[in-house]
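Q: What changes when zinc ion is included in the input?
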Amino acid sequence: MAKPEEIYQCQTTNCGYLHDPDRGDRKGKIPKGTRFEDLPDDWKCPVCGASKKAFRPLGEANAAAGS
Ligand SMILES: [Zn+2]
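A: The predicted holo structure follows.
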């Protein structure tokens, strides 16, 4: 199971797609074990087509809520 800080969530409205490095992205031909940082710069959200800049790590949100 990936740590929250390794799972990135798409922040666009009505999307919320999660990039889990343990699962990869079959649609985008991203193999399992690929960290978000290691995705190609032109990778797009398979659900809404947003760029990597639209993603935030889950761990970041948790840290903000806990402080
Ligand atoms: Zn998306």
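Observations recorded in class: The mean pLDDT is 91.
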